[in-house]
Amino acid sequence: MNDWFEWNGFKCTEYGIRVLEQPPITIPSERATFVDVPGRSGSLTLLEGDGVYDDMILAPTCYLEGGRSIQQIAKWLQGDGKVTFANRPGGFYYARIVNQIPFETILRGNPEKMFTVNFRCKPFWHYEELSPITVTRSGEFITNPGSVSSEPVITVYGSGNITLMVGMTITELENISDSITLDTTLVEAYQGVYSMNSHVSGDFPVLLPGPNAISWSGNVSKILIQPNWRDL
């Protein structure tokens, strides 16, 4: 059945809501500025950066069955979190619900009880249920199956000074004791609850589409990678 979406771990059908029309699978727009140059046909395109895209509004059209608790539904359909649509299973978007849903109007003035939920989605569709990848030999390759670069969480187990090379990115780690975790999405380095940012120099690693070499110099026993694959 294609009649559901899932928001923060709960399917809408658990609340008596069924999807009549799924939002189309949409490719986000690149964030760009177009400048007209005097004496030149067309315009000059200025990209804000490589792989920088705008948010999208994905809005399923829904039907509310009778006899349901509006208070529970209103409490559920708010805030931010993860949304999965039935027409694109196996992954999710990070999103925020941005419209106020007029349930009173739906119940009293709309016999068909139809409404939309506007999810303001970040541009990337993230793969779900990804297991960490363990690398024990310098020079091993891991392959990014996504269409865009991923922002992994990498834990390096080792000690002393370490040079980590992930694809084309080189990261210097200094005075490591036991382990250090590099969270590229947050641009933070830590060990447990303690910040390790002062032990890091260079760029945080990304995994480009296709094969990426994982190598290092220094005393490293293994590397654990949460890959966070994603597509447009």
Walkthrough of the structure:
- The chain has helices at 70-76, 103-109; strands at residues 5-7, 10-11, 17-21, 32-36, 43-47, 56-58, 61-64, 80-85, 91-97, 114-116, 119-127, 133-135, 140-144, 153-166, 169-183, 188-191, 194-195, 200-202, 210-226, 230-231.
- The chain has 232 residues and is mainly beta.
- It folds into 2 domains: 5-124, Elongation Factor Tu (Ef-tu), domain 3 (Beta Barrel); 133-231, Jelly Rolls (Sandwich).
- A hairpin with a 5-residue loop joins strand 8 and strand 9.
- It is globular, with a radius of gyration of 23 Å.
Write the layout of secondary structure elements.
Layout: E1 5-7, E2 10-11, E3 17-21, E4 32-36, E5 43-47, E6 56-58, E7 61-64, H1 70-76, E8 80-85, E9 91-97, H2 103-109, E10 114-116, E11 119-127, E12 133-135, E13 140-144, E14 153-166, E15 169-183, E16 188-191, E17 194-195, E18 200-202, E19 210-226, E20 230-231
Antiparallel strand pairs: 1-2, 1-8, 3-7, 4-5, 6-11, 7-10, 8-9, 9-11, 11-20, 12-19, 13-19, 14-15, 14-19, 15-16, 15-18, 16-17
